[in-house]
Amino acid sequence: MIGASDCADNYIFSDVPSSPVQPTADLYDAMIKFGQQPHTQLSLDYVMIENYGGGLSGHRNGGTWSTGVGNDGRLRNGIPFEPLCNCPGFGASWQTVTDAGAGETILMSEMWEGVVNAGMYDQLNFIEGGDARGDAVMADFARQLAEVVPSVRASAGVALGLSKLSVRLRALNMDGSSMDESMPSSAASLIAAVWEETPAAPAVFCAHMAVINSNITAYSSFEFILEGRAPPAGQRVTARRIFSPGLTVNISTGAGSAAPAWEVARDFIAPGLTNLYRIGCETATPDPDNLAANPTMEAPALSRMPGWSQAAYGDAEPLVTMTSDTSVAAEGRHSVRINCPTSKPIVFPLSGTQLVKPASDTSWGSKHVPPAGTRVFSSSVVLAPGKSYEVRLAVQASPPGTTVEILDGYWAVRPGNGSAIKEASPLLLADYHGSSIASIAAGQEWKHLEAVVHVPAATTHHNGTALQLRVSPRAGQKFGATVWADDVTIKEKEAAATA
Prior knowledge:
By secondary structure, the chain is mainly β. It contains four helices and 23 strands.
């Protein structure tokens, strides 16, 4: 059952005796002792919090005496595990701000305050008057939350025995002198939270941190330090700001330290802004022999994946998207999500280094008509003649049974193109010609699509081999398919054997 609440006594919806008092049980325990269970059963299964108005300062309290009893923290009192949906929106203060970008910044930070203080990850925003700025902010928030969601998802299950990683802040004067030597968990107008995730590799520490400035008129300088667990031994952990230019700094003692410890780091934050930081989360060192573009798909969440796109050539399917996805990955933190909402097969370049340069507009001259039949490859990797290569990538798909293939092919320029059309132009008309060299029926688990490509010696008409991927929705699947790809390797066979 879904219902709305416009007050801070959400604990009254519980169907067991409850109160606004925080539970005495240690919420980090893997199993909470009998008799100390927090109040987890609600007559409402999903509570939508009418959290309107108040501005940033009205949402920054953590709900405890030390941070000031107030919103948004007290919305959690008595119900530590229940899903709450934050509804900041209708008639909110951000819509009255006319300075360019300032209103959007406030709305974004109001949503992050709900995450930090009350674990409200879901957001429902009522945008008064159809204000288009709100739509853009919601899209940006979704992208930001998706980037840190592996950390948030892990730390949200506080009863799973996770580490008690936390952060302390100390506000500084802009000249760097301290405003408060006690280094409290909340420094003046600043609030913060850190979430640790289970890393893909045991030796890799990975967490994300949010710092919010609830003062909408003043910059703030601050120090922060992590605590609650020791940093990993034998490595330095780096904190770097994501989604905005800024800090990259070591925050732990490094290799050779007898007792690894967290170190204090400094940064600044603009009025009303939220700074997001990635802490650790190092991915594999790039392999210089790998010809694939962005092989582990590292890119900001929900953004267009660099190196992955359709070859337009007049036949691109406008609804196909290729974006970064943090919800599933075979290697590193991301995969590329290829959404194909069409029943027809989609062919696109397997991007990478072009060891043989394709014919291009320089071949036909910038003022001449491209010759019909000229082979073009878009961003496809092009392998050198007379050599053999190993190609391997991880794929999964929904629905199961979606076919993913590696193709050896090219696009041939059609007759009828005008002059001054470059090879990379989406106005260039060309038809695809290719053959399948490896195929797999992808499903809901990662599978590896593999091929060994023997590139023939160069001739007048064939110099090098270009590779593409083809996604074919299952027969009768009129709504198309979604494919995830990750961990791409394209290496010369000899190099692969000796690596």
